[in-house]
Amino acid sequence: MSCTTMTTTITISQRHPSSPFSRRTTAAVDAGRLVLKSAVRKTPPPLLDIPLDIVFEIFSLVQPIDLLQLARTNKTLRWYLMNRSSAPIWAASCHQVEDLPACPKHLSYPQYINLAFDHHCQTCLEPQAKDVIWTFWARHCKNCWKNILTDDEMRDEFDGGIAKGMLPEAFHHTDVIDTPRMLRYRPNVEKFRISLNNATDDEIRQACIANAQEQTMTMNHDATICQKWYQGFEWTRFLQFAKERYGKKETDTAISR
Ligand SMILES: [Zn+2]
Hints:
The protein has two domains: 107 residues, no CATH class; 138 residues, no CATH class. Helices cover 45% and strands 14% of the residues. It is built from nine helices and nine strands. The strands form three sheets. It has a four-stranded antiparallel sheet. A three-stranded antiparallel sheet has the order 7-9-8. A two-stranded antiparallel sheet has the order 5-6. Helix 1 packs parallel to helix 4 and helix 7 packs antiparallel against helix 8. The protein is globular. The termini are far apart. The structure holds zinc ion. Zinc ion binds next to helix 6.
């Protein structure tokens, strides 16, 4: 990893008495070392005053979801891990998860890991949101899915409604739309609608449509791969849970029935 001296510093505030940081602390990458400079404590905490290549090695061994939690711990780690130059750390961490598909181009590593491993609803933060619809690259609780899926066919923008393939769609239903049918993700529809409304001539409009079709095709392709991996991952995780709770023999017997 290339290490350059940076002049950027950030200030963090202590939120918890057990935090290793002083009340007002600045962090900077200085001569290739991640260093905390404390207004109160003269000597940086030894854990973080270590060469970046060692930090890289340590963080690369952390499971992706733990790395994400680490990045959320405080501003220093967030600043370091969310920096684009830290992408190899995330990549190495993801490499530990068996058969995890490569990070799709339209997502950052933290976004991808959040979607795959974090069970919080991306709208209301409900902690047991199990439903990921990979076609829409989103995880929500049942209530939020109900509000965020739509059968809007954009008939104001397209005679006869939007054509297949312009936006991602999934055969689904909600508590509001109880008959399973092709639904779209409301943020996608609204974003596409704004793009079309902002098109000042037909050439720009056609380019906007072509771009949407290309993006949809790529995202659908990646979604199929991720969906297949996720089903296997969730099944494996369920089996581990069942064996820990009920024992290997009982679990194997139940599965074989
Ligand atoms: Zn929710």
